[in-house]
Amino acid sequence: MQAWQFTNTHEPLVLAEVPEPSAEAGQVVVDVKAAGLCHSDVGLMEDEGWLALLAKTPITIGHEVAGVVSAVGDGVTDWKVGDRVGICPTTELGAPGYAFDGGFAAQTVIGQEALVRIPDSVSFAYGAAGTDAGMTSHHAVIANGQVTKGTKLGIIGFGGLGQIGARVAVLAGADVYVAEVNEKVWQNARDAGVIDVRGSIKDFADIGLDVIVDFAGFGVTTADAIETVRAGGRVVQVGMGRLEATINTRVLITNNVTLVGSVGGTKDDVQGVYDYLATGELNPTITEIGFDEIAEGIDRLAKGEVVGRLVARVGE
């Protein structure tokens, strides 16, 4: 079967012929139907700092995976052939595309403990986006942001993660303000129920934001969040557009700002997002591409040309 494989930083993805996987005890083979593309894929292609996270090279990347179980190994009792599943990338098994070959291929194999059931009413494209973008957004806003009804929340970045995080917060009853440099998606943010959207989080300095979640992570965005959140407020850092930031520690300390890193989430977060998707109250923007467009899609992400979450149709 064909797979898009990463070989090294600053090198293009390679479309290679690889063996089909088989299920060992406790594992299932998943026929991949959709696989999400993520800004962390861009980071992997451009920044050597990501190499330490890889179990091997070359490796088939793609960590947002949804599909159908096509084979089960010995000892698998809760899953059967034909089940619609997403793969949670934060279990002890590790993430697809990092700890083992991921979703930019026709099939992948995974231990049963990483599977989350996709409701019949949820598309595979949404199922893929829910495994990482959805999970990460839900966890950052609800668990680490501690957002509840009445929270004044700032969201930096209304891309693949930010749009989900903002909508989840609206559904939780928060007052949501979005900072997004791409004015083309401002109306999408308003349609999601946010109160206001502007170009910079600093434009909301007079609001008294209780919490700011930075889904962009381009260095200056982290610094701006710390200087904008109210005294005693909380900044949750999710985005890794850059792996370093220069921040004003005087403001951090004297304003008693809490700075929290947030990575991933849990299977419960994935399930929570699937439940929202199944109701129709959460319907993030998805841009779909074909399997043969994956390498080009990562380049489009790097150039900021994608609206919403980019998902590849793998198994037609």
Automatic annotation (TrEMBL):
<protein>
    <submittedName>
        <fullName>Alcohol dehydrogenase</fullName>
    </submittedName>
</protein>
<dbReference type="InterPro" id="IPR002328">
    <property type="entry name" value="ADH_Zn_CS"/>
</dbReference>
<dbReference type="GO" id="GO:0008270">
    <property type="term" value="F:zinc ion binding"/>
</dbReference>
<dbReference type="Pfam" id="PF00107">
    <property type="entry name" value="ADH_zinc_N"/>
</dbReference>
<comment type="similarity">
    <text>Belongs to the zinc-containing alcohol dehydrogenase family.</text>
</comment>
<keyword id="KW-0479">Metal-binding</keyword>
<dbReference type="InterPro" id="IPR036291">
    <property type="entry name" value="NAD(P)-bd_dom_sf"/>
</dbReference>
<keyword id="KW-0560">Oxidoreductase</keyword>
<dbReference type="InterPro" id="IPR020843">
    <property type="entry name" value="ER"/>
</dbReference>
<dbReference type="InterPro" id="IPR011032">
    <property type="entry name" value="GroES-like_sf"/>
</dbReference>
<dbReference type="InterPro" id="IPR013149">
    <property type="entry name" value="ADH-like_C"/>
</dbReference>
<feature type="domain" description="Enoyl reductase (ER)">
    <location>
        <begin position="8"/>
        <end position="312"/>
    </location>
</feature>
<keyword id="KW-0862">Zinc</keyword>
<dbReference type="InterPro" id="IPR013154">
    <property type="entry name" value="ADH-like_N"/>
</dbReference>
<dbReference type="GO" id="GO:0016491">
    <property type="term" value="F:oxidoreductase activity"/>
</dbReference>
<dbReference type="InterPro" id="IPR050129">
    <property type="entry name" value="Zn_alcohol_dh"/>
</dbReference>
<dbReference type="Pfam" id="PF08240">
    <property type="entry name" value="ADH_N"/>
</dbReference>
